[in-house]
Amino acid sequence: MILDAKIPSGPIEQKWTNYKGHCKLVNPANKRKLEIIVVGTGLAGASAAASLGELGYKVKAFCFQDSPRRAHSIAAQGGINAAKNYQNDGDSTFRLFYDTIKGGDYRSREGNVYRLAENSANIIDQCVAQGVPFAREYGGVLSNRSFGGVQVQRTFYAAGQTGQQLLIGAYQALERQVALGNVKMYARHEMQELVIIDGKARGIIARDLVTGKLERHFGHAVLLCSGGYGNVFYLSTNAMGSNVTAAWKAHKNGALMGNPCFTQIHPTCIPVSGDHQSKLTLMSESLRNDGRIWVPKQKGDTRKPNLIPEDERDYYLERRYPAFGNLVPRDVASRAAKERCDEGYGVGSSKQAVYLDLFDAFDRYGHTEAVKKGIDNPTKEQIRALGAEVIKEKYGNLFDMYEKITGENPYEVPMRIYPAVHYTMGGLWVDYELMTTIKGLYALGEANFSDHGANRLGASALMQGLSDGYFIIPYTIGNYLADEIYNKPISTDHEAFAQAEKKVQERLESLLSINGTQPVENFHRRLGKIMWDKCGMARNANGLQQAIQEIQQLKKEFWTDVKVPGGLHELNPELDKAGRVADFIELGELMCIDALHRNESCGGHFREEYQTPDGEALRDDVNFMYVAAWEYKGEHQWELHKEPLQYDVIKPTQRNYK
């Protein structure tokens, strides 16, 4: 199989413009004859469905939640990047492009990343026009803040709930198309199988999660916008329902999976408090904009943080990376926190945490507010109180959330944080048009692998999802559908639909018939522990080989001893969960295979055997400058295909944030 990324020729700053000027178009009358299925209604799915409905296509949108408003995009907190250069601090489209390539440790495509940077400014304009309440400066202009891996302020935000506000904007656009009849919304429906006819994606089998009924749906094209697979680790910052099932069904039908081992560990998560937990909560990276991260200089120090003097604190990110300090990329910050805790400097009862301290920012903002208010010789208490008001306006909902979860008041004591699984850079392999290796099947947003390489910069997930949905797929899908206007809709009575539905029916029945002794949750938790211990923040060959064997054994045990209560033709969340965990188990095996084959460290993929003398990721550009795209061949069998990465504009170097 030859992987053709279909990157347009010409200078990088003209590739997307040239593509749009030469791609095929579908006239409005013909668009009304074409049907498109969109699976997932987060930022990528909602924006795509809304845009395609606005263009005149007949769209069917599916989400397993009870409303598109509950998509996991709502959980994003800190912001969305765009190269507007409002601060006049040196930002540009090229700078955003460069930072993203470097942040991804030179494992992403130049063409895709430049297009993302190019689209970023339009995204902000689109969202402002929709009424997204971005934070503004006193004079009314949009405000910006910094995020990791960059030295400019380019992150637009709405307090600590940016994802929610952006999703409401996309949701409004989607619901407008629903009201006009251009989009038909199927909530509480989960894709169970992909239907392929004559080598092209032609529909899906979906299950009504309320009634249990299986449904057949035709589409001239299918868009998978179903998010990432971080829940393969069980404990992650993802919503508990987030899963890989839609993408995995596509993979087992021939869509290649790109770089599945590239997982992002987010450095600012509330630490695990016990075995009872089934989910972790993120503290926005925006807190690193004003916060300082530290541990005591003395091992095993049990003093309360406020009692530890300044000269006995190790601000280790500022010490190790003076140029970027607390705003190093997520993979770098995460490994640094793990290293300090592993060395015995961790804090809290578990000793698996570090402090995130904003009290310097309290004082800095407090002094500024005192000057603005004309307060001469303010007391320390006045300064702290004035600064707290500014912090509350910027991060108030995050502080409230932290206190509710931990019982500690972050206005009085530093937050405790520790890295956790957050985002997956791997996903279905797609070309420049966002099409997978199955014709007519597209993957958007976190469901594809395309834009972030081995590590995603903060505030870039929302940017990619909206870029794919609002500004890319409306062009690229037309290039494909222009040749489909002669093909009439295929009846769902077609044999391919019947076979796909039968396959789903048999799988669901087999899950119910096992009637073993262990609940689904047990298997998910055990899988997560294997993945975190042996394919998490650090990996090595021996651990990965063990993990593969353990996961294969876990799969056997799952299919012989899982207990799924309830029936098939009813509301049955345990059955839904069982199907998702079965897919996670298979994915986990592939992730370990991918991590084992990549004998280098890059970004979030840190192989302990491959590191620089000072503990940084050590790439091998000679042997691994490619996308690893895996083809499913059968149980426990995958074939590797390689898409070489070519850098014409940026020269790959050892990342340096010092």
Automatic annotation (TrEMBL):
One of its GO terms (molecular function) is electron transfer activity. One of its GO terms (biological process) is anaerobic respiration. It holds the Pfam family FAD_binding_2. It is found in: Cell membrane. It is a peripheral membrane protein. Signal peptide: none annotated. This is succinate dehydrogenase. The lineage of its organism: Bacteria, Pseudomonadati, Bacteroidota, Chitinophagia, Chitinophagales. Its EC number is 1.3.5.1. Transmembrane segments: none annotated. Belongs to the FAD-dependent oxidoreductase 2 family. FRD/SDH subfamily. It comes from Hydrotalea sandarakina. GO terms for cellular component: plasma membrane. Keywords: Cell membrane, Electron transport, FAD, Flavoprotein, Membrane, Oxidoreductase, Transport. InterPro entries: FAD-dep_OxRdtase_2_FAD-bd, FAD/NAD-bd_sf, Fum_R/Succ_DH_flav-like_C_sf, Fum_Rdtase/Succ_DH_flav-like_C, SdhA/FrdA/AprA, Succ_DH/Fum_Rdt_flav_su, Succ_DH/fumarate_Rdtase_cat_sf.
